[in-house]
Design a protein that fits this description.
The complex is a heterodimer of chains A (117) and B (116). Chain A is mainly beta and 117 residues long. Chain A has strands spanning 4-6, 10-13, 19-25, 31-38, 42-49, 56-57, 65-70, 73-78, 87-94, 107-108, 112-116. In chain A, the strands form two sheets. In chain A, strands 2, 4, 5, 6, 9, 10 and 11 form a seven-stranded mixed sheet that branches. Chain B has 116 residues and is mainly beta. Chain B is built from no helices and twelve strands. The radius of gyration of chain B is 14 Å and the shape is globular. The chains are: A mainly beta (117), B mainly beta (116). The interface between A and B is medium-sized, with 29 and 23 residues.
Chain lengths: 117, 116
């Protein structure tokens, strides 16, 4: 079974703090994604990565950065947290299909509920 | 224009009955994929079912089936014999283009409540 883990289920931070959200997957997936989820807006893609040290901006990258130093780990960084970044953050991974069939099915972690005060 | 539209913010169904959750999509790419995910109150997104645009038959996975109507660009999820544990948010998503390096676009979700 695919397993995606996130470092915290709940996190409370203060405005201006630097925040790290960690995501680890154990299925040797090449692709990894960070989303935020807000009521009525569905899931919005922040950043994604197709390979180690590679990153691509999603739909709402402002205020965020990412790091992918190892294949299994994808970190989301809030350089200076603000109250409008209070949200549910979801990490996902998928197979890229190189050499084997893939549908791009994404497998998600349990999510991190971040509150910025 | 919205790529994925879920017009039902909430649905109610009685236990043991079937329920259909609507999803329409918009793409001009002939190759695409459609997904349904379930999100219980715990927050984790659980993959339920996948339909490829070239698949000849509607996808089924246990009590879940996907009513795929290509000409109408709809991919409705049918849950048969609803159970209390089916109460959750359900999201429809789409991959545009051939698989391998693609992102998914998600709808805004439908909240399903199953009553005893």
């Amino acid at each position: 079974d695919v397993k995606v883990t996130q470092s915290s289920r709940y996190l409370v931070k203060r405005t201006g703090e630097k925040v790290f959200l960690e995501c680890v997957q154990d299925m040797d997936h090449e692709n990894m994604f960070w989303y935020r989820q807000d009521p009525g807006l569905g899931l919005r893609l922040i950043y994604f990565s197709y390979d180690v040290k590679m990153k691509e901006k999603g739909d709402i990258p402002e205020g965020y950065s990412v790091s992918r130093e190892k294949k299994e780990r994808f970190s989301l960084i809030l350089e200076s947290a603000s109250t409008n970044q209070t949200s549910m953050y979801l990490c996902a991974s998928s197979l890229n299909g190189r050499g084997q069939p893939s549908t791009d099915t994404q497998y998600f972690g349990p999510g991190t509920r971040l509150t910025v005060l | 224009a919205q790529k994925i539209t879920q017009t039902q913010p909430g649905m109610f169904v009685q236990e043991k009955e079937a329920v259909t959750l609507d999803c329409t999509y918009d793409t001009s790419d002939p190759s695409y994929g459609l997904f349904w995910y379930k999100q219980p109150s715990s927050g984790e997104m659980i993959f339920l079912i996948y339909q490829g645009s070239y698949d000849q038959q509607n996808a089924t996975e246990g009590r879940y089936s996907l009513n795929f109507q290509k000409a109408r660009k709809s991919a409705n999820l049918v849950i048969s014999a609803s159970q209390l544990g089916d109460s959750a948010m359900y999201f429809c998503a789409m991959r545009e283009g051939p698989s391998g390096f693609q992102k998914l676009v998600f709808g805004t979700g439908t909240r399903l409540l199953v009553s005893p």
